[in-house]
């Protein structure tokens, strides 16, 4: 969203911020300013593309991916001065230099200590102010003026965290021109609700970025668009037919979560109460999402159900979350199994907390190459994914690819037949979500063809054997 003081000029003023002519900026009650379709948009259409105003590679990807294009590479060139950032070639190094030059000496000076991703992002954004654009909506001196910050409503604890990060920014910029602490604090506050996590096709976070034009996109738990990335390039794609005048909406939060936690996150980070149709009706008896909160049997009180769900969520947030960070996969599997056993006496298998616990369990089995248990877990996750997420949610498509691959690894004729069904559905979704030329879409098409050919080969061999 944008600051209420910003006055919008005609559409031409926004074309420099990657707002295409097929989209217009409007203000509406309940949403404030947002992006709206000027004409009909079909599912799978690329509506908007944008390069980041500033971006950084995730710490977890450091050493394995290029700091500029974010592509994974086994042959990275390290910056000769700071020895911190790495590039896949001279072209990426040259393109990144205008922003890297301001942090380079600071990174070398504080080595072997490393700043957080947020601190690096702020330093890069401050450098952008030097070469700011000329054509901006009225009252905006630089692009960051267009972004909303909920500075006035921040809790004391959040303000203290921001102040600590500000010290890190100042340390990284030490020795350069006088540091404007007020400006740095303002940028940090705006990053709290205006950063995008950049994901690869397999939904692993690989970076963090700020995009100016896309900051206008508003939220719904029932969106009509999805955000995907080509390296650091932002792509907004339609997930259903969108009519002229309809607002373009994305989802800010993880949908496979309880309504209370989604709403709490939206309030804490973005300072609004979600009143979308799904949030308003999700827990009602007739809602298709009611099963997310279902118990095992009718004998349990609501307090008992809520207690069981809360216990499972605490396990996820604390023990399982900590173990995932250390990548102790046997321990992750053990704790997930114990939690699921605990839940099984009270929660329905389709309860959202059970589904949320199955996710790290599946990941641990895949990391441990335990294909049979991974397949069994993935099968249990299928119904929650396909029921609680919208049809063209990227997680649904990626899950179906995983399911198809696991069935191929098991390799029985029955599993090959099922892999064909899963991969057919996966390709249908991937074409809409990512496009036919995307590497993951191509991989899924190839996997589907392999399953089909192998099945034909086996049936042909079976017929020959029966004739003989």
Q: Can you put this structure into words, describing what you see?
A:
The chain is mainly alpha-helical and 468 residues long. It has 13 helices and twelve strands. The strands form five sheets. The chain has a three-stranded antiparallel beta sheet, with no helix packed on it. Strands 4-8-7 form a three-stranded antiparallel beta sheet. Strands 1-2 form a two-stranded antiparallel sheet. A hairpin with a 2-residue loop joins strand 10 (225-230) and strand 11 (233-238). Helix 3 (156-172) packs across helix 4, helix 7 packs parallel to helix 9 (352-367) and helix 9 (352-367) runs antiparallel to helix 10. The longest helix has 29 residues, at 439-467. The termini are far apart. The model is unreliable at 1-12 (pLDDT under 50).
What is the topology?
Elements: E1 23-28, E2 32-37, E3 46-50, E4 54-57, E5 77-78, E6 86-87, H1 90-110, H2 117-128, H3 156-172, H4 181-194, E7 195-199, E8 205-210, E9 218-219, E10 225-230, E11 233-238, E12 249-250, H5 259-270, H6 277-281, H7 302-326, H8 329-344, H9 352-367, H10 371-388, H11 394-410, H12 413-433, H13 439-467
Parallel strand pairs: 9-12
Antiparallel strand pairs: 1-2, 3-11, 4-8, 5-6, 7-8, 10-11
Helix pairs in contact: 1-2, 2-3, 2-4, 3-4, 7-8, 7-9, 8-9, 9-10, 10-11, 11-12, 11-13, 12-13
